[in-house]
Automatic annotation (TrEMBL):
One Gene Ontology MF term: phospholipase D activity
Coiled coil (residue ranges): none
Gene3D superfamilies registered for this protein in UniProt: Endonuclease Chain A
Keywords assigned by UniProt, alphabetized: Hydrolase, Lipid metabolism, Membrane, Repeat, Transmembrane, Transmembrane helix
PANTHER family per record: PHOSPHOLIPASE, PHOSPHOLIPASE D
Lipid metabolism recorded as keyword: yes
Chain spans, region Disordered: 217-238
Catalytic activity field: a 1,2-diacyl-sn-glycero-3-phosphocholine + H2O = a 1,2-diacyl-sn-glycero-3-phosphate + choline + H(+)
GO cellular-component term (any): plasma membrane
The name this protein goes by in its record: Phosphatidylserine/phosphatidylglycerophosphate/ cardiolipin synthase-like enzyme/uncharacterized membrane protein YdjX (TVP38/TMEM64 family)
GO BP of this protein: phospholipid catabolic process
Amino acid sequence: MSATPPVSDSAPRMLIPDRNCWRVEEADRFRLLVDGDAFFHAVREAIINARHSLFIIGWDIDSELRLRPGGAGDGYPESLNALLHAAANQNPQLHIYVLSWDFSMLYAMEREWRPVFKLGWKAHRRIIFGMDGRHPLGGAHHQKIIVVDDALAFVGGMDLTRGRWDTSDHIPESPLRQDSHGTQYAPLHDVQAMFDGKAARAMGELVRERWRRATGRTISRRRASPRQPLDPWPDSYPPDIEKVHVGIARTEPAHAGRPGVQELLQFHLDAIAAARRSIYIESQYFTSNMVGQALIDRLGAGDAPQTVVVSRKAGSGWLEEANVSVLRARLHHRMMAADRGGHYRLFSAELPGANGQSLNIHSKLTIFDDDLLCVGSANLSNRSMSLDSECSIILESRGEPRVRQAIARMRNCLLAEHLGCPEARLAEAAPERLLETIDSLLGEGRTLAVLDPTVDATLDASIPPSAQLEPEQPLEPDALVRQFVPVEPAASKRKRYLAVGGLALFFIALTVIWKWTPLADYLEVNALTRLARGFSNLPSAPLVVMGGYVLAGLFSIPITILIVVTGVVFGATMGGLYALGGTLLSAIVTYWIGRWLGRDTVRKLAGTRINNMSKQIAKRGLVAMIILRLLPVAPFTLVNVIAGASQIKVKDYMLGTLIGMGPGIVITVIFAHNVASAMRDPSPESFAMVAGVAVALVVVSIVLQRVFMARDNKGAGKLRAAS
């Protein structure tokens, strides 16, 4: 390392702290880890080398993840959870901190179940697990950071979770590309930066601040024993370059009195404006309005740079196709219209023998003129530029030829992987001839393919310019209602305002009654079960049950309690029918109450409660109702009233309620019935039946998810989170 020239401080600088980055620090070593196999292997070695502190910050973390699917052969346990326990046991000074996003239930099927997850981490007193839900409405914590001993850091697009591992060969049917449950997933491409020095130490400060905000606890920097050398750098991965300037850039939404941070957005705007020869982009999502407009402005200029975007061919689910895929297609067509000189191309990465399936581009990387390389968690999307917490690393050349050459090698390495050609074929290409070089290397099998995304006209017409699943700023409750609920005429508002006052007093009185009077006893499952069994054999029982559900909706009684009681008393089949019918009847009654009250009345009645809506929702129609039912955004009755005031069609409202709530109702009824049966007849067979039902329900959930996925691949779509 001593032979490496010192970092130059005299060359022109793009990175300016407090403008387009948080800090600029020196890294002694820097390596771009391409694809999950390299990243997971390097992380495993770093964990084993850790001596006093290890921070894992992620959108999602899977405790059962195998970092080396083919077997590590290093004498340590295979799963991530067991590996961390082994590392903590062998190093008494080592403290491990795991912080994951307190996720929306929209992603529950994609992630490890929280109770199992937390119990796994809590087994060791020096492995501390935390969930971070401190973000504004609609936001997510999307940073993917690992810091080892404040001496080594990983920043990029990959979490330590399922569905991320793959080799750079991306073999379509690789038997090693399976999650911890044995389910195979599609080939996936991603990148992660690994670096040390002062830049890694700065990342230690950043993750400690995240931990403090999430948990309220401060973690001091620990000192290792002088007998233990602090160099956790993995020997299997030598650096790409040494002694470089590294910028740390973030996105943080304004929240809890803290101002927003949009360093990543400003960096991309500055870098696009300064680019003269080439812009190379890999992005899972490509939808950002402001970044897109900056690219459009450059493409319309006389000195437009060669602009290459590599993204995935299609969305990975029905919500994604209904939102971000539409927005990407719109941005692409705007860029094509502005590109008069043939300087822009959008590509997907194709794989041989994949039956038409393209490589899933999950990376978030941009390279400008071989002078700047940015890699991290942030997509070129509205969310990543403003709403979600993000962190990216920027390697800046400052005009140094050795750094520019290293950045060019990294870009060529990525293009060679996608084109299925030797890296040497790209080494002689000038940045200003990037598109011509790519065109000359296009072929059959492993290659890049020109992508011209289109969407169904009906779907396109239904998606607003900035869909709520891809917003440009945190969702304000009043704005959310304005977008979700159309304006109504001013006539008869006075009467409705009087109704608001009366309803408010009514609901307050109900709260007092249910909480502080003996009537609260009647809301317990046992009490309601006894009541229901008293009339269960009557001919009028179905009508009584239906009426009970309607009354529950009118009196804000949690409807889940009634669903459980219905399953216990009436069994799986009739209980399921009663619960589903009662829920739909209650939903339509409270819907018409909302329709009568109208938009402005609902805003005054429920505006503060809408603040509790925890995650993203779409603007209107069937998709809106499915999301509202899937997300734990608000009480059942409140959602119904808001939907009625919104003038959503009854057909979309009821179908969305059925799709969103139907599976959950069936699952709850069946499980409640079998648990009750087991309690009445406690035998190994009855408890085995409960366990069997639980397993069956999980299988059904997975099958339902795959049904949606199959529908998506034929032209519908879904959001991620991200990640």
